[in-house]
Design brief:
binds zinc ion, 3-stranded mixed sheet, 5-stranded mixed sheet, alpha/beta
Length: 192
């Protein structure tokens, strides 16, 4: 079972690198969710549930789920090798190795500092919580066409200057592999 799984993960990676397969937005969302740490049963399961996807990547993840569900198999040589293949595949997809440019449907980043809008005029303005006025700390999320800022107190702000596309772009250019930024975060916006 582990051998088949390793083979499937390896083939998918080869096809991705050859440009004959690329993830769709749903699959890229699962990748972003899984590529940030070691593979765990719960996270694999959540990624499958979260996206409700089907296809080759889903098949590989379902195999990983079954393997992780049997710890003695996962810890064996064949199991560990299969999981390593999958980890390599996820890392390549998360890093957009083949330049496919597929944007996940959901992208989030935690910011410890202030979120600044960089306007085309060169000036910058902070993103502020509409409820409590907080301007440091919080989570930015782009979900489909929706972009939100959740302050440290949990208040949700939708700022018309913040668009999902520009937020995704900012995350991709400044922090493609990070789930958290320790300092300030800048978003270029097409506003004067
Ligand atoms: Zn607030």
């Amino acid at each position: 079972m582990a051998d088949d799984f390793a083979h499937a993960a390896n083939e998918l990676l080869a096809d991705y690198r050859a440009g004959t397969w690329r993830p769709d937005a749903q699959e890229q969302t699962a990748v972003e969710h899984l590529a940030v740490g070691p593979l765990e049963l719960l996270r694999v399961r959540r990624a499958l549930l979260m996206t409700g996807m089907s296809g080759r990547l889903a098949d590989v993840l379902a195999a990983a789920d079954a393997l992780l569900d049997t710890p003695q198999l996962a810890a064996g040589d064949a199991g560990a090798a299969a999981l390593k293949e999958l980890t390599e595949l996820l890392a390549a997809l998360a890093a957009d190795e083949a330049g496919a440019g597929v944007e996940p449907t959901v992208r989030a980043i935690e910011v410890a500092g202030t979120v600044w809008f960089f306007m085309t005029s060169g000036s910058r303005l902070p993103l502020v919580c509409r409820t409590c006025g907080a301007r440091t700390g919080g989570v930015l999320t782009a979900r489909h066409e929706d972009a939100t800022y959740e302050c440290a107190e949990g208040h949700l702000t939708r700022d018309p200057r913040l668009t999902a596309a520009e937020l995704r772009q900012a995350i991709r250019t400044t922090a493609p592999r990070l789930a958290r930024i320790d300092g300030d975060f800048y978003i270029s916006v097409d506003l004067r």
